[in-house]
């Protein structure tokens, strides 16, 4: 297998663009090669199977949408409050909509994982670590609620992102307004 990390990253980023634009059915080694502008066969040198390609994309997507440690440090240094939870959630929505194709690619990966046990295992582990990190941040910041409230927020934000980045219900509500309401209704009444 090829070992150039920059080339692997280039191919994974191209694969994410293909996945977002063409869906899982359009994701082929040839399509990734064409998108990356590399000779045919290059992607298969780095990702020898479809499973390896999907796993590589799952690994790369979380590098791309990872939170900025400086922003987390700033948020984590603030006094515990619902405003802090709201700002944290706003940051998640901003970060995941900044490059909408990345989040669309993540939706595609999650759908594909429902059909591929090997991808389900890899992607599920990453998703669970992200959730655990969010719970840890919440607890370390001394915010009200805990794992259950963070799960509720994940479920709600996933739905908001799906609506913002795919075909919308067009309910006419601003995303910032929705985030504020989610926090106040899902966490606002929780003590401790």
What are the salient characteristics of this protein?
10 helices, 0% strand, 74% helix, 192 residues, TetR_C_31, Homeodomain-like_sf, mainly alpha, HTH_TetR
Q: What features would you describe in this structure?
A:
This protein is an all-alpha fold. Helix content is 74%, strand content 0%. It has ten helices and no strands. It is elongated, with a radius of gyration of 18 Å. Residues 28-47 bind DNA. InterPro entries: Homeodomain-like_sf, HTH_TetR, TetR_C_31. This is TetR family transcriptional regulator. Keywords: DNA-binding. Residues 5-65 form the HTH tetR-type domain.
Report how far the terminal alpha carbons are from each other. Answer: 51 Å
Please state the structural category: mainly alpha
Order of helices and strands: HHHHHHHHHH
Number of continuous helical runs: 10
Low-confidence spans: pLDDT under 50, at least 5 residues? none
Percent of residues in helices: over 70%
Rounded average pLDDT: 90
Strand tally: 0
Strand content: under 5%
What does the radius of gyration come to? Answer: 18 Å
Largest sheet features: none
Shape: elongated
Write the layout of secondary structure elements.
Layout: H1 5-26, H2 29-36, H3 42-46, H4 50-64, H5 69-76, H6 82-97, H7 100-113, H8 117-140, H9 147-165, H10 175-186
What is the structure about, briefly put?
Helix content is 74%, strand content 0%.
């Amino acid at each position: 297998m090829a070992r150039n990390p920059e080339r692997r990253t280039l191919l994974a980023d191209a694969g994410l663009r293909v996945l977002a634009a063409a869906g899982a059915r359009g994701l082929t080694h040839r399509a990734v090669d064409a998108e990356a502008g590399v000779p045919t066969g290059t992607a298969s040198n780095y990702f020898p199977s479809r499973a390896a390609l999907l796993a590589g994309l799952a690994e790369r997507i979380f590098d791309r949408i990872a939170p900025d440690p400086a922003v987390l440090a700033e948020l984590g240094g603030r006094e515990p409050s619902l405003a802090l939870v709201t700002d944290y959630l706003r940051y998640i929505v901003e970060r995941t909509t900044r490059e909408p194709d990345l989040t669309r690619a993540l939706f595609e990966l999650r759908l594909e994982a429902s059909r591929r046990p090997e991808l389900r295992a890899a992607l599920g582990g990453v998703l669970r670590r992200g959730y655990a990190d969010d719970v840890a941040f919440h607890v370390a910041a001394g915010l009200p609620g805990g794992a259950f409230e963070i799960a509720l927020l994940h479920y709600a934000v996933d739905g908001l992102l799906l609506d913002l980045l795919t075909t919308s219900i067009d309910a006419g509500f601003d995303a910032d307004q929705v985030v504020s309401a989610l926090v106040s209704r899902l966490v606002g009444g929780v003590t401790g």
